[in-house]
Amino acid sequence: xxxxxxxxxxxxxxxxxxxxxxxxxxxxxxxxxxxxxxxxxxxxxxxxxxxxxxxxxxxxxxxxxxxxxxxxxxxxxxxxxxxxxxxxxxxxxxxxxxxxxxxxxxxxxxxxxxxxxxxxxxxxxxxxxxxxxxxxxxxxxxxxxxxxxxxxxxxxxxxxxxxxxxxxxxxxxxxxxxxxxxxxxxxxxxxxxxxxxxxxxxxxxxxxxxxxxxxxxxxxxxxxxxxxxxxxxxxxxxxxxxxxxxxxxxxxxxxxxxxxxxxxxxxxxxxxxxxxxxxxxxxxxxxxxxxxxxxxxxxxx
Length: 301
Fold this sequence. Notes:
Layout: H1 29-33, E1 46-49, H2 56-68, E2 73-76, H3 87-97, E3 100-101, H4 105-111, H5 119-133, H6 138-150, E4 154-158, E5 165-169, H7 185-188, H8 190-197, E6 203-206, E7 213-216, E8 220-222, E9 231-233, E10 240-243, E11 257-262, E12 266-272, H9 276-284, H10 292-299
Parallel strand pairs: 1-2, 2-3, 5-6, 6-10
Antiparallel strand pairs: 1-11, 4-5, 7-8, 7-10, 9-12, 11-12
Helix pairs in contact: 4-5, 9-10
């Protein structure tokens, strides 16, 4: 026998009125006529990409993966150009697909001057500028330069998924365009990491090093393969800087394109295969670009 807790009469079905024949007359009520309750709207997700470096094959593969996941919002942390063979195509695609993009040091180098670049990077910057200038369509050429010129170096916004401000920069919260935060810094320069984290209210997203992972305020660094399911869960009492890795030139010995999905409670690292041979072949066919820029893609260096 099932024992009812509390007042047993509260668990009995209501007594329905009866018509003259003794049959129950069911009153469906307004809720029954309204149909099943509507499902809550899906929680939005933001895809964060960075360091495309004029690698159209990698960019298209990542954008296809994002679309396949049903993600509608994409932001870019800069370095759309530099190193790679497809600068115009990548600029056009980022301008079309992303809500906004930041300026990276290679974008700055093409628009202004490639200062403090190594010889290969400097040559690639000048070659990229030549491609912009060689565009025969005046409107397209102007639109691309205008796009680069409007790129911001720092954005703070309340990303819908998190509910609190998130700082977005290309390099570091201290020097947004050029400063690197390397994984080894947590051991070799912990004061540097601590000082940078002092400029973060809760969460920052960066690129620049091409090495994905999470810096926490211990300080420590966690690559994606040390995170459960490649996911970093946000905690109220911990600051973090999330490096989303590189779409077009990963340097963590994994040649797959890298990006991050920002969910309400976590950051999810994603890797995507793409046709590396296509991009490497294009690079080697351009005399101004070093063959090494193509070879390194196969090794993720």
